[in-house]
Amino acid sequence: MGKTMLQIHPFDPVWDKNSRVLILGSLPSARSRQEGFYYGHPQNRFWRLLAALFDAPVPASVPEKKALLLSNGIALWDAAASCEIEGSADATIRSARPNDVAGLLARCPIARIYANGQTAAKLYRQLIEPDTGRPIVALPSTSPANAAWSMERLMDAWEKIKNKG
After folding, report:
1. For position 135, which CATH number holds?
2. pTM value surpassing 0.90
3. pLDDT tens digits for range 11-65
4. Where are the beta strands (DSSP E) in the chain?
5. Structurally, how many domains does the chain consist of?
């Protein structure tokens, strides 16, 4: 087992005044922190999944990733502002402190909140929902660790994030 370390969330939320859907992860992985943006691990299916859902090219650069999100009314952040974690294993998250999701919700017209995986949903429900009073819908994780879910199954499950007003 790896060493448990305190990790501070390194990225700002991605959002604008047209964001209607918020997708929350748990905390950026070691690879994402190294790459400098959300879902930076090449095996994570997040960017390929969003591109397929919105019939767009798979974004490569950070500006392309932000444009894909914002052009489809999607805000992106994580539930944890900091936590103790072993490597990138969500199952080892301890002593999590929440990001100010309530503050974000006050700044843009988010209608629906989704979690990328069960850990993000659990963190939101424990640490954030008491402040926001807003429910979250857990979607299957796009992580390569969630190998039981094929891309086709993920697309079916994630279809509901499409902005319907």
Report:
1. 3.40.470.10
2. yes
3. 999 999 999 999 999 988 888 989 999 999 999 999 999 999 999 999 999 999 9
4. 4-8, 21-25, 74-78, 80-86, 94-98, 112-116, 137-139
5. 1
